[in-house]
Design brief:
- The protein has 147 residues and is mainly alpha-helical.
- It has two domains: 1-14 and 23-49, no CATH class; 62-131.
- It has five helices and no strands.
- Helix 3 (64-85) runs antiparallel to helix 4.
- The longest helix has 44 residues, at 88-131.
- The termini are far apart.
């Protein structure tokens, strides 16, 4: 297998038609084996970075919207407050630092909450067959005793 050729998956490659004809084709999925060296892998990773493509699909990233909005609002607030008593340079440093701290913190908390919810759903899915499984009991029921 060549490590330079990316594998692509599209909705047209499946034998069944897609549910929605207006659905956009799936994004290209890259699957490249490791080059064997750390710096070779880093070089391959940087080749795949596309700011335009990544930012156009940011709404598909779980928790990104809430964390970015929280970070922006916090950064602006702290920047304005620090700007009242310090220079613009100091205030902008505080604003960027606050943005990064709040964004990373809210994204981490959101991801942890999603993982906990995924675990709870998995537990429920595993428990449902046990709950409705019929037991093979030959003991007489309480209704037959009263008759």
């Amino acid at each position: 297998m060549s490590s330079d050729a990316p594998e692509t998956t599209t909705s047209a490659s499946s034998s069944t038609p897609p549910n929605d004809a207006t659905k956009a084709p799936k994004r290209i999925v890259y699957h490249v084996e490791t080059t064997g060296s750390y710096w070779g892998d880093v070089k391959e990773a940087f080749k795949r970075i596309s700011v335009r493509d990544d930012l156009s699909h940011i709404n598909e990233i779980p928790c990104a919207r809430n964390s970015l909005l929280s970070g922006i609002a916090s950064g602006v607030g702290i920047g304005v407050i620090r700007g009242m008593s310090a220079s613009v340079f100091v205030a902008s440093n505080w604003a960027v630092g606050t943005f990064m701290l709040i964004s990373m913190g809210t994204w981490t908390i959101c991801q942890r909450n999603r993982e906990e919810e995924r675990r709870r759903v998995q537990q429920v899915v595993e428990a449902i067959p046990k709950r409705f499984a019929k037991t093979d009991e030959t003991a007489p029921s309480s209704e037959s005793k009263s008759a």
